[in-house]
Each structure stands twice: as structure tokens, then as C-alpha cells.
Amino acid sequence: MSQSRRLLKSIPTRPISSIHRPQPKSPLPPTTPSSTFHTTPPRPIDTSPPAPPSTTTLLFSENQPPTLPPRAALLLPTWHPTPSGKGLTRTFTFRSFSAAWTFMSLVAEECKVQKHHPSWSNAYNRVTVEWTTHRPEGLSVKDVEMAEFCDRVAGGMGVKA
Q: What PANTHER family does the record point to (predicted)?
């Protein structure tokens, strides 16, 4: 028999029922019996995409090429101006969480190359992306290029309409 087993056998043990555990004293009043609670079923989680903002005006950063406004206008059927008009936002819905994560990874790699990053969020199979430029403030050619890149990647992955 090993030394550790001998040590374990030499330790006196008591049945768990004989161990005294004082009950904590709560400063709260006693709880109401559960039969008096009225419960309502949980509300379903709203996973619908946010409604597009009412504005269609885009505000561009300084010193942008003259071809930028018409190029940005081509994105407007699927992308929406942010409430400030200084950015573009879109929600992509994929077949699965894994596909959404793959999309984000591919976009993140391009973000490193372009040195331009979005504000975005992911919930389940949905990714919401917002492109804007902070200095100088407004929509820039990088925002439009990255929105176009997102569309190409999502289209190649079979994004849901």
C-alpha cells in the first residue's frame, strides 16, 4: 500500500449528515410561497434587423474623390446611412453562427491590410457592420471600399437576403 493511501486511511471521517452547517441569516424577509407568484412566459428575443434610419443624406469626409458620392449611392439599396449620415451600416444574416464568424474573420484580415476597422456586432447568425471615418469625420473612400468588400465576401458565402 502506498504512503498516500495509508495517510488517507488514517484520517478520521464522519458521515456528511453529522457535519453541522449553520444556516446563513438573511437580512431579507422570508420569501413568499411560489404558489402566489404570477409568472409570465419569457418574451421572445427580437432578432430582426434594425429598421433603416429615415435619412438618406450622406455626409462625406473632406478631400474625397468626386466619384465617391455616386459609388456610395450604389450601396444604398442594401446599406443604410447611419443616423448622423456620416457612415454606412448593414446587417448580414448568414446560414449559421459559424458562417457569420468566418465572414467576420475574412473582413478582419482585410481590415488589417487597409488599416481601417468597422464598428460591428455579432448575434447568432447575424453581423451588423458600420463603416465611418473619424478623422476627418464623415464617409470616406475607405468606408465605401470596405462596404463593397463586405458585400463581395458575403455574396460569396451565400448570405441570406
A: PTERIN-4-ALPHA-CARBINOLAMINE DEHYDRATASE (PTHR12599:SF0)
Torsion sign, CA atoms 109, 112, 115, 117? positive
Task: Copy the grid coordinates of residue 114.
Answer: 487597409
Rg over CA atoms, the chain: 28
81-156 folds as Gyrase A; domain 2 (3.30.1360)
HSE, side-chain direction, 13 A CA sphere, residue 130 = 18
- Helices 141-156 and 97-114: crossing angle in degrees, nearest 10, is 150
Question: What nine digits make up the cell of 82?
Answer: 447611419
- 45-83 pLDDT, tens digit per residue, is 656 665 554 456 899 999 999 999 999 999 999 999 999
What is this structure's pTM?
0.66
Cα–Cα distance, 142 to 132 (Å, whole number): 9
